[in-house]
Design goal:
The chain is mainly α. It has 4 helices and no strands. The mean pLDDT is 95.
């Protein structure tokens, strides 16, 4: 499967998981927060699939996951959960794209 398509699929799954973790949280504007989280995680998967860094794919995924999660962590001041989920999801997306992408 193409790397970009695989990245999009990985990003959609990553976004859905991220939104799922937000369901029990008491948020002021839950719909907006969930939409932002979903599209941030979708972007992580897409960028991992669309780029080719001279690094192992898991490292590339880690870097993109951290970099693209950083603005949300700064805005919300929820550093640990946002950065950890971004790092773990980025590594997983990188491994998936690296293993199955063409």
């Amino acid at each position: 499967m193409s790397r970009i398509v695989l990245g999009l699929i990985s990003g959609i799954v990553f976004g859905a998981v991220s939104v799922g973790t937000m369901i029990p949280l008491p948020l002021e504007d839950k719909k907006t927060a969930m939409a932002g989280a979903f599209f941030n995680r979708l972007a992580i998967g897409f960028v991992i699939g669309a780029t080719s860094l001279p690094l192992p794919m898991w490292t590339s995924g880690l870097l993109w996951g951290l970099l693209l999660s950083l603005p949300d962590a700064i805005i919300t001041k929820s550093w640990l959960p946002i950065m950890m989920l971004g790092a773990i999801g980025g590594v997983i997306c990188g491994l998936v794209v690296g293993a199955f992408g063409v």
